[in-house]
Amino acid sequence: MSVNSSNRSGLILGMxxxxxxxxxxxxxxxxxxxxxxxxxxxxxxxxxxxxYDELVDKYKVEYTVGGATQNxxxxxxxxxxxxxxxxxxxxxxxxxxxxxxxxxARSDGVDVHYQYTNKEPTGTCAVLITKKGTQRSLCANLAxxxxxxxxxxxxxxxxxxxxxxxxxxxxxxxxxxxxxxxIEVAKQALEKNSxxxxxxxxxxxxxxxxxxxxxxxxYVDILFGNETEADAFAKAQKxxxxxxxxxxxxxxxLPKLNKNRSRIAIITQGQNPVLLAKDxxxxxxxxxxxxxxxxxxxxxxxxxxxxxxxxxxxxxxPLETCIRCGIWAATEIIQRYGCTYEGEASFKE
Length: 349
What we know:
Strand order of the largest sheet: 7-5-1-11-12-13-14-15-16
Distance between the termini: 9 Å
Oligomer: single chain
Order of helices and strands: EEHEHEHEEHEEEEHHEHEHHEHHEEEHH
CATH class: Alpha Beta
Largest sheet: 9 strands, mixed
CATH architecture: 3-Layer(aba) Sandwich
Radius of gyration: 19 Å
CATH topology: UDP-N-acetylmuramoyl-L-alanine:D-glutamate ligase
Number of domains: 1
Structural class: alpha/beta
CATH superfamily: Ribokinase
Number of helices: 13
């Protein structure tokens, strides 16, 4: 289904770290050399800096538009088929990488409003694929993405975009960059009773950025996360359980400011069913099982899931349809390298 109403432009606003993904299939020795764990996401430290050049020199790499929020919005646009429903804000460098990224993101239908900095180059993310595509490790060098400041959302032209939006989405990764920007946008969402959504994004965020995460949490209407992120969050919050259904339920019961709607928690579990917790009930949604040879790259599966979910949400579809579209989108994305797609989206209910 395509969006045919002209007033849907700017309906979804996302903030996050715009990154150019550098993806390659590598051997496990490469992970060991740079002290990178399989199926994990980390921020680059000094010891990781040579990784990027070595990746480009020694392996066959692909460059794709990346960053969790930007990816989710691109997938939503692919499904919606009407440009500029999604608006994205994040910080980039004034270099060739940001030009490539902006052109690509706009051609994907996302209305990007980057903040530009001369202090750092555009951020990059090494996507290290192992075990024939079944595992992926992310090592992000945020660089310019780290330079996002609250001034950007206060510019009149950007403020008007925030005022117009009805759905807001931020990745947990943005907690490492500008918590004040997240809070300011979340407050505006609360004031106008708009949906504010966040993703747990990576286990290290629950462990090391718990304070800003829990400051944002009362504003969160829908929280997304995968099973390892849910485990880390439960541990940090001392939930005392490793049962994902219980964790999802406890997330919905955390303090919440908007009393007009209860919080929804959505936990994806790879090949196992997606969990949806709402109003004291946890529902399970089976995931399409692909034969192993069809799985090319699981990177971007979580972002694609959110994109599919958002696309149906803005069309006013039931949560069940949103989840099924998320599963469909993730299943499509993992059959290709990076968070990429081709042809028209064919989701049908």
